[in-house]
Amino acid sequence: MKKSKGAVEAEISKAITQWERDYLGRGSVSVKADILRDMVIVNLRGVLTPAEYSVCETNEGMLSIKKNRSVLVESGAEQLKEILFSITGEKVVSFHTDISTRTGERVMVFKLESDYEKNI
């Protein structure tokens, strides 16, 4: 039976939350995945620790946290691509991510090989 778009989005959200716990040692407060054409956009809220918020009060600290968090996530990018492939059956052709040190949100964008939204 074919899964609904909402079911696939929920499965992606759950899998990324589990990846965060296993790979980064802690999960975010909430994860929401959205499928849009050939992209999967994932919004993660509450990714920074209280200590990281304190460090982000200075420009130098903020840049340091952004860089360190980026390196951590990028080092697990291949695992994330494999997770997306196992759920969607689509190859991830590119992965983009950024974090807001003001809101503590991270956005991940997975660009897929074809228009996945059209296929579900």
Q: Please state the CA-atom Rg, rounded to the nearest Å.
A: 15 Å
Strand content: 25-35%
* Shape assignment: elongated
Helical segment count = 5
Overall average pLDDT: 96
Adjacency order of strands in the biggest sheet: 1-2-4-3
Query: What distance lies between the first and last C-alpha atoms, to the nearest angstrom?
Result: 11 Å
What can be said about the biggest beta sheet? 4 strands, antiparallel
State the total count of DSSP E strands.
4
Could you estimate the helical fraction of the residues in percent?
Answer: 40-55%
| Backbone structural class | alpha+beta
Sequence of secondary-structure elements: HEEHHHEEH
What count of structural domains?
1
Give unreliable regions as ranges.
Answer: none
Summarize the structure.
With 120 residues, this protein is an alpha+beta fold. The chain contains five helices and four strands.
What do you see in this structure?
This protein is of the alpha+beta class. The protein has one domain. Helices cover 49% and strands 26% of the residues. The chain contains 5 helices and 4 strands. It has helices spanning 5-24, 50-55, 59-75, 77-88, 116-119; strands spanning 30-36, 39-45, 92-100, 105-112. The chain has a 4-stranded antiparallel β-sheet. Strand 1 and strand 2 form a beta hairpin. The chain is elongated, with a radius of gyration of 15 Å. The termini are close together. The model has no long low-confidence stretch (mean pLDDT 96).
